[in-house]
Amino acid sequence: MSGLTVSGNPYTVKKKHSSAAMNGPYTCLWYNNEAQQAAEFYCSLFEHSEHLGGNGFMALFRLNGQQYMAMNGGPTYHLNPAVSLVVECANQQEIDHYWATLSEGGNPGRCGWLTDKFGLSWQIIPSVLGRLMTNPKTAPRTQKALMRMTKIEIDDLYKD
Q: How many CA atoms lie within 13 A of 117 on its CB side?
């Protein structure tokens, strides 16, 4: 474990570096053999994103400042909807853009979920969704509307 030393007690770990100097935890995405292509694709979609480098085995990248690792781990494990990335959109135009781009070659799901062409699951949601779903007056109507949708249509969340 880089940055850690173990003292005389096998259960005591002392840090060599302050936590401010270390990156926090970040997500590793396991691909069969598409890590580099996936990283380049995701970086092309989001502003303030950068491909940090890679080799034939892995790629590091940032999306809007959040770091990720993509790894070519082979066919043993597969991405699945138990883990998804959430894109919170300010308006319908953003939802339409991300939905169209990420679902191309992938599979649309229900309630704003989709799987992209590399197998990664995404939730493309409006920024107002959390407020609507946590308000006791609007939550039932919002949930009912949401259950009928694939791509989320913001105006339809407000209809009875």
A: 11
